[in-house]
């Protein structure tokens, strides 16, 4: 039993096992019970799932409080809210990828489910590397902070620019180096099909697999912003990883819930850019004020204010446009 108390990235192994066990149970319940058959997920079902994942993410803060302290709890909640909000930008991109490849709604959950498995592994690697670097070279946090400020400013000036999936070089690369069918084949990612030139059976990728690859790459790019953002909130790998994964677990349900009304949040990107600038600035504000750390409770409150203002502004602007 001593192995359960072995410290892994600063926390007892049993704490990591509890979290990973919960994640595995949720994924098994999702795929094995709720979605064992492909079907179109309606708004009502997706809203229930969103509430479930959101509630679990918030309830996990109770476990953080029980095992750690108030400051860690505030940091977890701030990181969870920031990750959840930054994921909104990812949802816009997911919707565009599905539209480009003409993926029917009944197969979209399958793509997102397998996508989340890749995310869990990739985020674990990135956060583990990040935690090791920050522990050895604390000044890296200042580089993260500057990067976030520059990213926020860039996002502010490029918020109106539309992504054009058809111009993406990765799609052209994949189609050039892989055998790809033009049409879907049910829920299959790969099929065996006769090569018209040789007559032999060859393995072909379907548009479903291309959509999965594009979503994984999109999340990797998204993580380049979001992981440093959380490291500027806390350097505790356990809080960074658990807040990341809980935020992303509900991403699929949130996508289906918001898919029909994504246009109402078109201006939320401005709030996200301000949020990134704020998160990046905290370390410099704390240094200028002579604080050991920017107060986590203030960080959580300011985050809610920025996001709340962004949501209200976006809903009002899109509402006035619909009326005109």
UniProtKB/TrEMBL annotation:
Subcellular location: Membrane
Keyword annotations of the record: Membrane, Transmembrane, Transmembrane helix
Transmembrane domains' residue ranges: 13-34, 46-66, 86-104, 111-133, 139-157, 208-232, 238-258, 270-291, 297-315
Keyword Isomerase attached: no
Membrane topology of this protein: Multi-pass membrane protein
Chief site of localization: membrane
Top-rank lineage group of the source organism: Bacteria
Similarity annotation: Belongs to the TerC family.
UniProt protein name: TerC family protein
Organism: Rhizobium lemnae
């Amino acid at each position: 039993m001593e192995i359960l108390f072995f410290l892994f990235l600063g926390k007892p192994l049993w704490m990591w096992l509890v979290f990973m066990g919960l994640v595995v149970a949720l994924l098994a319940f999702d795929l094995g019970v709720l979605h064992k058959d492909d079907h179109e997920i309606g708004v009502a079902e997706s809203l229930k799932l969103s509430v479930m994942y959101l509630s679990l993410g918030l309830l996990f803060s109770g476990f953080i409080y029980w095992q750690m302290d108030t400051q860690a709890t505030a940091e977890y909640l701030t990181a969870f809210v920031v990750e959840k909000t930054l994921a909104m930008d990812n949802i816009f991109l997911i919707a565009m990828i599905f539209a480009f490849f003409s993926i029917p709604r009944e197969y979209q959950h399958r793509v997102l489910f397998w996508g989340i498995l890749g995310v869990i592994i990739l985020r674990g690697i990135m956060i583990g590397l990040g935690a090791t670097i920050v522990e050895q070279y604390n000044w890296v946090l200042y580089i993260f902070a500057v990067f976030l400020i520059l990213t926020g400013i860039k996002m502010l000036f490029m918020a109106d620019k539309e992504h054009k999936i058809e111009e993406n070089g990765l799609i052209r690369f994949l189609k050039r180096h892989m055998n790809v069918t033009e049409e879907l084949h049910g829920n299959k990612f790969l099929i065996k099909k006769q090569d018209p030139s040789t007559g032999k059976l060859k393995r072909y990728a379907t548009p479903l697999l291309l959509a999965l690859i594009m979503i994984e790459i999109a999340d990797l790019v998204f993580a380049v912003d979001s992981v440093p953002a959380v490291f500027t909130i806390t350097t505790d790998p356990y809080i960074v990883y658990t807040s990341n994964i809980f935020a992303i677990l509900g991403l699929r349900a949130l996508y289906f819930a918001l898919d029909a009304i994504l246009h109402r949040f078109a201006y939320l990107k401005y709030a996200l850019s301000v949020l990134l600038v704020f998160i990046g600035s905290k370390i410099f504000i704390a240094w200028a004020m002579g604080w050991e750390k920017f107060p986590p409770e203030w960080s959580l409150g300011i985050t809610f204010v920025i996001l709340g203002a962004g949501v209200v502004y976006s809903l009002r602007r899109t509402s006035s446009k619909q009326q005109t």
